[in-house]
Prior knowledge:
- The chain is an alpha+beta fold.
- The chain folds into 3 domains: 13-217, no CATH class; 240-323, Signal transduction histidine kinase, dimerisation/phosphotransfer (DHp) domain (Helix Hairpins, Orthogonal Bundle), CATH 1.10.287; 327-483, Histidine kinase-like ATPase, C-terminal domain (Heat Shock Protein 90, 2-Layer Sandwich).
- Helix content is 50%, strand content 17%.
- It contains 9 helices and 14 strands.
- The strands form 4 sheets. The protein has a 5-stranded antiparallel sheet with strand order 4-3-7-6-5, sandwiched between helices.
- Helix 2 runs antiparallel to helix 4 and helix 7 (336-353) packs parallel to helix 8 (377-394).
Amino acid sequence: MYLEKIFNLISRISIRLRLSLIFLLIFGTTMIAFNMYMFQAMIDTLQQDFDDALFNYCVDVSEGIEIGVKGDLNFPPLQLDQGKILPFPLGTALIQVRHSSGAVLARIGNFGEFNPPYKKDFERIWAGEEATYRTMEHIHNIPSAEADSYRLISFPVDNASKPQILLQIAVPMTLLETQISQRLTMLQVGIPLVLLIATFGGLFLSARALNPVNRMINIAKNIKASELSQRVPVPNANDEIRKLSLTLNEMLDRIQQAFQSQERFVADASHQLLTPLTIMRGELELLQKSEDKNTDQFIKSALQEVDSLSKIVQEMLLLARVDAGIGALNLQELAFDEVIFEALSRCEKLAKSKDIKLKFDIVNETNDDRKFVRGDNDLLINLCVNKIENAIKYSPNNEVVSLILMWRKESTYFIVEDNGPGIPADQLPFIFERFSRGSTMENRVKGFGLGLAIAQKIAVLHSAKLKVQNKEPRGARFSFEIKNI
């Protein structure tokens, strides 16, 4: 629950601050871990140097100790090289010689009640260690202790295989404590300071990195419907910002094309709807002025225009459904030959009116049974009807329109060929646009220029292909390809 609240809180802050926090988290964690490792390594090094100096001092002291025949000890004045610099004051060193029985044989310095341990030290030396070290912390029973901790070394004095006499020297760790404290203070001050600098640096760098995004945001805010030709700037660097700007520009291209298409659609639809309405208005005005009571001809003409308006509205509604996208489809498994048979039954009346014969052939290029496709039954029937009616309309009377259904391994093809005048070469690229009609046939063939645009949209929604080309010596050839399931 707490993690969810944290994630919700993080999701509400700006991406700039998020980037800075992530940078600070990664950099800070890495830097703190590295400094802790280096600090521990530095302590180990200083400790080793301190122990090495203490060991050398212990060796010098042990060389001055003489053991008599009766086991008595003699401590001559200690002589050290003048060039030696030790990390502890010699005057405060506590020195004693101890027997394995626990008896203290000799002492130098004010031990007070301080009694250094020795038993485990004997055991470790007997096990083969050259010397043993201990850190005695919080020394309260040493009179006038100069440090919070002392370093104790135990070193064998006799050369027996199992030494019985130890030289123990305890020295204050004042210098080592000071060095560690200074370095710790540097880390305590330096790490927050570096993290603070890194925070401002991260904010600055993230702001610089997001400047192109902010420019794109400001430009995108100022793009209006009347200024869709504007584009966001594309940076030179080949990074994600460049990909984002290119994607936005591609989206703006599509939006501009959609707006232009809708504007053309509204203009063309207004023109197409206005024409029959103007005709109906003129005829009704003539009827109103006419003294002839025979109104059958006027009514028939008005009904024809109403039919035209109904046809336009139906096609526009169908186009709106197609424009709604794949979510408006009722996809199901279909046998495409049944779709064509249904389309033929709807086109039969139009073909008879022009004495045109519809020739339908099925070609199976595989050894399998008929193929099935997945699609919207009503839309695919509309597509087939549109292609067949288009071929009938543009074919002369008493001609033949060829329909071919071809089953291949991966796709089903539906081909419609007519023997009409064909499509002018300069109009082929625009044949599937809304309200696009060949100018040479506009007065001879009734239509509104929406059928092929609808058919092309239906093909795109079914991930299919609808193509057109002229065939020799005359006529047009439409082919529809859809994937089998």
